[in-house]
Amino acid sequence: MESSEAIRPEKMGPLVMKETWNTPGGIVSWERSENIYICRGECGGMVIMFLSDEIVRMKVFRDKVPDLTTTAAILPECCIPHLFPVEETENELIFTTSAIRLILEKSSFLIKVENMQGKVIMQQNLTSWNPRGASHAEYDMQPDSHFYGLGEKASFLDKRGERYTNWNTDVFAPHLPEIEALYESIPLLIHMHGELSYGLFLDNPGRSDFDMRSHGVAFTISCSTGAYDIYFINGPHIKDVVKRYTSLTGRIPLPPKWAIGYHQSRYSYMNQQEVLQLARTFREKRIPCDVIYLDIHYMDEYRVFTFDPVNFPSPDKMIRELGELGVRIVPIVDPGVKKDPNYEVYKEGVLDKHFCRRLEGDIFFGEVWPGISAFPDFSDSRTAEWWGDLHKYYTDLGIQGIWNDMNEPAVFNESKTMDLDVMHFNNGRPVTHEEYHNLYGMMMSKATYEGLAEHLQGERPFVLTRAGYAGIQRYAAVWTGDNRSFWEHMAMAMPMVLNMGLSGLAFAGPDIGGFAHHTSAQLLVRWTQMGVFFPYCRNHSSIGTLRQEPWSFGEEVEGILREFIGLRYRWMPHLYNLFREAEVSGLPVIRPLILEYPRDPHVTNLCDQYLLGENVLIAPVYRPDTDHRSVYLPEGRWIDYWDGEVHEGGRHILAVAPLRIMPMYVREGTFVAEGPLKQYAQEETGEMIIFHLYGAQAEEGFSASYSLYEDDGHSFSYRKGDYSEMRVHAEAEKGRLMLKWSYTMDGYKPHRETLRFALCYPFFETAAVEGLGEISIEELDEGRAGWTRNGKGGSIIVQVSESRDGGELVIVAAQG
Ligand code: GLC
């Protein structure tokens, strides 16, 4: 425990900065070279590159020749400068694109970005640097400013009034709002003020700070080493910023379907009997599950790329048996390679110079789980290839997913990481660890993903990581590290994962149930309810804590968890659609309400409820012994998922939520595609799709559109066109509902004969479907075309034959 000594004045650093801070002074000359504008000041200067009409890179340089390299965060194909007109006046340089005007004040290097209506979107007042290599910039902030993004950070959704550090850190201590750095660093800040939003991405993998504590005056961004290399990303909506930021740093690849199933983990399942028994229990209890994780105890004294010969004597047999049950394993792989001259990986790493070294040539050693270890230098593509290739050991066993942990890198020493003077070879452009730190974990996952992809021959790999930097989404899903079984941590997972989604990390989630400390029956239920609609869904807990597999708290709890995990599987077609959307547009799978309702003042910091996609509102209960909660419904009409009750939006309602219920609402005019309940994502059951249509007011009418994406769920052949897309459209007015569907892409043929539509629409109690007969549910299940009443909420189910030509039907309310 810390005492007040922790805040002794001399520990707080110099209160007055003693160094001189340099600024570029005024512009003394400027030139254009290959569409790049180089503006030189009295000392140093700034390079301006327009990467599109909406994205501008501004890199400060101190030397004579500006260095234009980027980090691995930026997709090289996006870093091509475009030519836009520039006009020089006495005081300014004015660059104009179709969307923005960037005005550079010659006397001060002050930069203003305006929209075409002349409204100031962003103002950068001052950039400066000190002789120790730190840089700093100050930006205007408004009284109505709100801040989002910044990846994995504690506290609430809106980062106004907070300060954060980007320095990947292994934090086992409870994640509290005051913790400024966690495992991932995504230096993207989204600033919304009034009707305008923009993003600032600082491409610097060293330590950086974003300080939004001055209420309404200015915010600052600083970095302690490396270049001040900032990208302005235009809005005006947050959605535009997210799409553009992810066009620059990449989007998630569509995961294999199994990776978006339910995952079960524990530090550790200790032997192969335990793993097999666990898988059998899932199947016996009919609780769906796709993945079991192997934590560090599967290895031979924590040597990566080995199995413990005593506790896991026949991994191939275990994996085969698991395969028969439809369960995969994902083993953990940490970067620390045990120092042991009899261990092949270590020997090879030393002999072929794959480990991080100091400038003088000696290998850096640090202590982690295996004891003294060396750390591969993933910045070197030769080493990255070597590491990727080592994964053949796993793929030969039938493994398709790897869990990267401790890759900040975490080291058991005072600084918690590698010494700052260790070098990274960086393909011939060596940098110190101090400058490179936040990239280390991402480059490990990149090497892992690429190695797996190589050896899986066309199957989609899955990588999970704890550490990362901007762009990590291209290679790995991210989990939020060592949280605790605290209700507060369950609640905090919402803003954390929502902001991660706004920062490009569309495939993310926390350890469900909490990692450290002991979970409870209620906490596990509530957390699982919330977690089954998070993109990444894994229950994981630490050694020495209460067990938290779904059956750990008796039958009632088990029943509720079975129901909710089952719901994730029934909603898999819809979820998969959202993952596809994330791959194509960069928009996150789960979203804070501010993303969809940017003009609603009630949602600027709303983060105890979230949206799945655009139109499904999830409102978890996140306090113990609570069976009611307030829910904010934005404008529109919302239908209670559980009882069909219709609520007018734009107000708060009190939801009733006994333990078995998590409040969920679907916006009127929404389709949700559901499939059959499966025990694992690609279980071969009779395939079926039910389009649930949520409507409310027949008289006033509504319309709904949906596009269902389908492919084989496991290979990359969708990238060659082997996928299908079905458009479904509904138009309701004056007692008639017209439904139309057609394939706009049919490169993949789903194995099914029929399609179903479930119409959750009260007036259909008295409706009939033109040209189709009313039949029983049993006849529907036999595959006949027709329609039937569902009872609940007056909804009806219509079944038609599947046809590549699409079709349409009309449902008419009965007269009287
Ligand atoms: C770290 C990980 C945790 C894992 C443990 C043992 O604490 O964050 O998930 O179980 O190491 O490998």
Salient structural properties:
816 residues; alpha+beta; Immunoglobulin-like; nine-stranded antiparallel beta sheet; 18% helix; binds alpha-D-glucopyranose
Task: Outline the secondary-structure elements.
Elements: E1 27-33, E2 36-41, E3 45-50, E4 55-61, E5 86-88, E6 92-96, E7 100-105, E8 111-115, E9 120-129, E10 135-140, E11 145-149, E12 163-166, E13 184-185, E14 188-193, E15 196-202, E16 208-211, E17 218-223, E18 229-234, H1 238-249, E19 263-264, H2 272-284, E20 291-294, H3 315-324, E21 328-333, E22 337-338, H4 344-351, E23 365-368, E24 371-374, H5 381-390, H6 392-395, E25 401-404, E26 423-424, E27 431-432, H7 433-436, H8 440-456, E28 462-465, E29 468-469, E30 477-479, H9 487-502, E31 508-509, E32 511-512, H10 521-531, E33 538-539, H11 554-570, H12 572-585, E34 590-591, H13 593-596, E35 610-612, E36 616-618, E37 628-633, E38 637-640, E39 646-648, E40 651-656, E41 664-667, E42 670-674, E43 690-694, E44 702-710, E45 724-733, E46 736-746, E47 754-760, E48 767-769, H14 777-781, E49 786-789, E50 796-801, E51 807-813
Parallel strand pairs: 13-29, 19-20, 19-33, 20-21, 21-25, 25-28, 28-30, 30-31, 32-33, 43-47
Antiparallel strand pairs: 1-2, 2-3, 3-4, 4-18, 5-6, 6-7, 7-8, 8-9, 9-10, 10-17, 11-14, 12-16, 14-15, 15-18, 16-17, 22-24, 23-24, 26-27, 34-35, 35-36, 36-41, 37-40, 38-39, 38-41, 42-43, 44-45, 45-46, 46-51, 47-50, 48-51, 49-50
Helix pairs in contact: 2-3, 5-8, 10-11
GO molecular function, one term: hydrolase activity, hydrolyzing O-glycosyl compounds
Domain Glycoside hydrolase family 31 TIM barrel: 253-578
Pfam families: DUF5110, Gal_mutarotas_2, Glyco_hydro_31_2nd, Glyco_hydro_31_3rd
